[in-house]
């Protein structure tokens, strides 16, 4: 709770008392890092959480530090009175947070109504208002010049510690990457408020309109987190705004350097969709294909249409909005000009279905993936029983693809291993289960699917589990069920983790939020003053670690609701009119993308869409099957220059290091041990390129270290672990909720957000120092479920037969299709026997909102040749491939969609131009090709590979 220093205070400690007297104040409160160092000692560690010094006129100063830093502060500081605030498992605390500590000290000193000196020039807006709230009767006086003056007198220890003081003070001032960025949140829509939370979590000052919401432990507590809630009259007087977050209608910028952000339902000028600007996610989800194309296994239940309660369009829009804002903020440092950014929420939803909307022609036949979920006659007869018996449904799904099934452990819990797309992981899984010998005896082989000869064994190739013969799948599922039943779920999970094979216990969302690893890692946080835990930060920046505790929203106290108060201190905006902003804000920046599957590559593709030059590096010997590396790359490989490199060779390492040396951002999806093996851990990256921003996309990591950090994973695994599969199915019959749309793409976009938060901080500092940023599949899976922090929602909105949140907002099956409608009354009986067209007219006559339920195929058919403002597809021919893909409409800058990036080409196609640009000669390139240090497009060099087993 408190610590005593035995050091002899230097003369300047008494000068703090003198300064208070000379300034005619009762006490000085300083939160400025340099001033804290000056008053307390040159101790770097106490700046890792906000420290403070309270210097009364008539006694020695008091140091406030986080309780976890108390021991170190006592060893290093020369102040005799040190108090610890915050939470600690083994140390009692003086107060719950820094400002609670300040209030207790001021009460103890009898100065709650006194004259308080503060340093206006360095005090953040958030801290200024917080002081006003806890000390409403105090008078605040600016003592910046007085403190600066007496600090010019240097004591001997100051001179000796100048380097460390300067370095630590600078770090303290820039610890939060968005510190000093002022955001005006006028929109009340969920997308606007969620965008504000994401920015507040990184240190931005968020001024939000106070709608008088009561703090009731519900969702408002989360959406108000870290914000200053102001009455409309006060909000309008806030100055120095950098970013304006509006709702469904755009907000005009008052100065050219500002950035405005809005989230309408559809693109401005859209005539195809009759929707209000604030249309609900339920209506938009119906139009995007989320009710039809995400039910990969639920179709076995006879449901072609299933409602999803996930607010996918809102969450994707919020994340895309903050990505665009960070890109614009970065570019503002070059041009001094802001941008008007519009993120149509329907388009944001489309950004989540790229691989589902993709058609790719021109790929060699042996590289095409086998079909998914074909039901043989011997299993077809089991469907009726599966539809009435949850355990039999699991039994049936396991036999369609055993490597991605759900299995009962000895203690009755369900586990999900996910090894379908990676042959190395599939082999390890069977070895762990003690089944690999049986697998080989069944005639199953391990053959590279990049070798045309593998077509001969395609129906018994462990590298293509979804193409396995039905009789083999049935036998494998039975063997796996028996093996998993021999140990508890926790035992299996730990064994798989130790072997680096993805496997997780199936949980529902409340169970996951209570789990020890979610709490330990900071994926779930306790918030001081609130009863319910909340989701933690969705991204993190290493230079801000350890982050300060998350804070609830604060209402401006009555005593401080004056415009003059709101205007102190003024925020910094970019220089107005310094240059003309190009449409794409990241032009000139370089990204090196070493990621695979979908999440990491989606991060790189998004940065390319914003104008960055993106180089894509893949291995010459992939364990992932062509579905991942070639087919899905038709979407996430757009806008990239691709090269295949053997990084295990010295020459391959040289290619990597030359390329990384050019980068502003380096994208990696790997565990911590994986980044080490790749040679691109944080320390290794800093050595190769000290100005680069690394973005690590992992599976289970949160803001803080945990025992799950080094566990691998894929989208379906995190769906199982965090409750998405239980929400779409049930806890005893978890069902996959789409391929990539729930977790993968969102995580990739969070990665782009994290990287750009780090990049804009580098550019605003002007020091060209790099950083390390992180997000994870677990963070993405949590964020997409953010509404359920407040409760599970209606029973009709969950499960494999979900129809909607209420009787008046629900799906309706009609004679020729489905609609989703929001009405004032339940009109389902009145619509029996109607067609979609008839029901639509009937509902609109009654002022109901209604949309047809569309599949992605229907969208493609409607808008391929007649694009709308919001839904557009494009056909391209490039590198021998003919691709049909969504055309991005999710970023609108200054009234225009960003121009589409170059279409994807076969992976590895750009090796000549990339290597020449790095200074390699044509002869050196040919040598690397001959020695297979550089791979041929589509991994054609593996056609000669002899490292395969096709016996």
TrEMBL record:
GO terms for molecular function: transferase activity. It holds the Pfam family Creatinase_N. Residues 538-577 are annotated as: Disordered. InterPro entries: CoA-transferase_III, CoA-Trfase_fam_III, CoA-Trfase_III_dom3_sf, CoA-Trfase_III_dom_1_sf, Creatin/AminoP/Spt16_N, Creatinase_N. Transmembrane segments: none annotated. Residues 12-153 form the Creatinase N-terminal domain. Signal peptide: none annotated. The keyword Transferase applies. Keywords: Transferase. Belongs to the CoA-transferase III family. This is CoA-transferase family III. It comes from Hyaloscypha bicolor E.
């Amino acid at each position: 709770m408190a610590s005593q220093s035995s050091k002899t205070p230097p003369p300047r400690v008494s000068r703090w008392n003198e300064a208070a007297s000379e300034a005619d104040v009762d006490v000085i409160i300083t939160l400025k890092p340099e001033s804290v160092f000056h008053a307390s000692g040159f101790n770097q560690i106490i700046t890792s959480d906000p420290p403070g010094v309270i210097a009364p006129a008539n006694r020695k100063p008091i140091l406030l530090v986080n309780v976890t830093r108390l021991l170190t502060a006592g060893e290093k500081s020369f102040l005799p009175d040190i108090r610890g605030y915050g939470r600690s498992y083994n140390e009692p605390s003086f107060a719950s947070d820094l400002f609670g500590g300040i209030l207790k000290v001021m009460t103890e000193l009898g100065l709650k109504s006194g004259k308080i000196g503060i340093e206006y020039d360095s005090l953040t807006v958030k801290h200024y208002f917080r002081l006003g709230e806890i000390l409403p009767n105090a008078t605040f006086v600016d003592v910046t010049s007085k403190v600066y003056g007496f600090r010019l007198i240097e004591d001997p220890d100051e001179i000796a510690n100048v380097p460390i003081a300067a370095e630590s003070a600078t770090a303290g001032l820039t610890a939060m990457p968005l510190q000093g960025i002022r955001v005006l949140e006028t929109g009340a829509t969920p997308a606007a408020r969620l965008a504000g939370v994401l920015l507040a979590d990184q240190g931005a000052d968020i001024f939000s309109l106070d709608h008088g919401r009561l703090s009731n432990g519900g969702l408002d507590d989360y959406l108000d987190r870290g914000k200053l809630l102001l009455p409309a009259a006060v909000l309008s007087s806030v100055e120095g705004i950098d970013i304006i977050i509006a709702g469904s209608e755009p907000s005009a910028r008052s100065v050219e350097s500002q950035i405005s952000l809005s989230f309408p339902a559809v693109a401005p000028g859209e005539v195809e969709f009759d929707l209000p600007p604030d249309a609900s996610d339920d209506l938009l989800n119906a139009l995007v294909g989320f009710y039809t194309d995400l039910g990969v296994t639920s179709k076995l239940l006879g449901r072609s249409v299933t409602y999803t309660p996930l607010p996918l369009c809102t969450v994707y829009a919020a994340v895309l909005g903050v990505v665009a804002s960070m890109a614009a903020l970065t570019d503002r440092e070059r041009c001094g000009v802001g941008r008007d950014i519009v993120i149509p929420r329907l388009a944001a939803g489309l950004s989540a279905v790229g691989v589902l909307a993709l058609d790719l022609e021109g790929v060699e036949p042996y590289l095409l993936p086998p079909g998914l979920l074909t039901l043989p006659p011997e299993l077809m007869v089991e469907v009726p029983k599966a539809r009435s018996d949850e355990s039999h449904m699991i039994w049936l799904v396991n036999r369609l693809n055993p490597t991605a099934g759900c299995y009962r452990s000895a203690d009755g819990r369900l586990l999900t291993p996910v090894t379908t797309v990676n042959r190395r992981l599939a082999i390890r899984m069977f070895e762990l289960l003690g089944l690999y010998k049986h697998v080989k005896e069944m005639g199953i082989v391990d053959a590279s699917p990049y070798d045309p000869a593998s077509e001969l064994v395609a129906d018994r190739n462990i590298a293509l589990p979804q193409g396995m013969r039905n009789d083999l799948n049935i036998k494998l599922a039975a063997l796996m069920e028996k093996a998993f039943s021999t140990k508890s779920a926790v035992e299996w999970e730990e064994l798989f983790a130790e072997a680096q094979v993805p496997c997780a216990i199936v949980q529902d969302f409340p169970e996951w939020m209570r789990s020890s690893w979610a709490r330990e890692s900071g994926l779930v946080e306790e918030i001081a003053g609130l009863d319910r835990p909340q989701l933690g930060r969705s991204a993190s920046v290493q230079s801000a670690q350890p982050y300060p505790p998350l804070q609830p929203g604060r209402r401006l106290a009555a005593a401080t609701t004056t415009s003059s108060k709101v205007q102190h201190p003024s925020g910094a905006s970019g220089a107005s009119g310094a240059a003309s902003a190009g449409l794409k804000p990241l032009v000139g920046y370089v990204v090196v993308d070493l990621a695979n599957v979908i999440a990491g590559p989606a991060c790189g593709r998004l940065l390319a869409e914003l104008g960055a030059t993106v180089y894509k590096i893949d291995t010459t010997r992939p364990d992932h099957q062509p579905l991942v590396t070639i087919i899905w790359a038709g979407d996430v490989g757009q806008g990239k220059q691709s090269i295949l490199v053997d990084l295990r060779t010295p020459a391959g390492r040289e290619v990597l290091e030359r390329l990384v040396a050019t980068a502003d951002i380096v994208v990696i999806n790997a565990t911590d041990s994986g980044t080490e093996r790749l040679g691109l851990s944080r320390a290794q990256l800093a050595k190769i390129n000290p100005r680069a921003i690394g973005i690590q996309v992992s599976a289970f990591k949160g803001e803080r270290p945990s025992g799950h950090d080094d566990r691998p994973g894929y989208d379906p695994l995190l769906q199982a672990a965090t409750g998405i599969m239980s929400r779409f199915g049930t806890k005893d019959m978890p069902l996959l909720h789409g391929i990539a749309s729930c977790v993968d793409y969102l995580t990739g976009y969070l990665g782009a957000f994290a990287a750009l938060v780090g990049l804009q901080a580098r550019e605003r500092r002007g020091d060209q120092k790099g950083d390390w940023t992180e997000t994870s599949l677990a963070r993405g899976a949590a964020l997409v479920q953010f509404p359920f922090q407040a409760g599970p929602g209606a029973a009709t909105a969950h499960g494999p037969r979900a129809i909607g949140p209420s009787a008046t907002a629900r799906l309706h099956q009609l004679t020729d299709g489905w609609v989703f409608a929001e009405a004032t009354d339940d009109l389902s009986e009145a619509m029996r026997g109607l067609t979609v067209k008839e029901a639509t007219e009937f509902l609109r006559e009654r002022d109901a909102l209604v949309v047809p339920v569309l599949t992605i195929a229907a969208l493609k058919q409607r808008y391929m040749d007649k694009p709308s403002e919001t839904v557009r597809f494009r056909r391209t021919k490039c590198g021998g491939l003919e691709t049909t893909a969504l055309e991005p409409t999710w970023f609108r800058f200054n009234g225009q969609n960003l121009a589409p990036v170059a279409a994807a080409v076969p992976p590895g196609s750009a090796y000549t131009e990339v290597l020449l640009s790095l200074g390699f000669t044509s002869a050196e390139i040919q040598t690397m090709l001959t020695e297979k240090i550089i791979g041929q497009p589509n991994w054609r060099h593996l056609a000669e590979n002899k490292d395969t087993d096709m016996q």
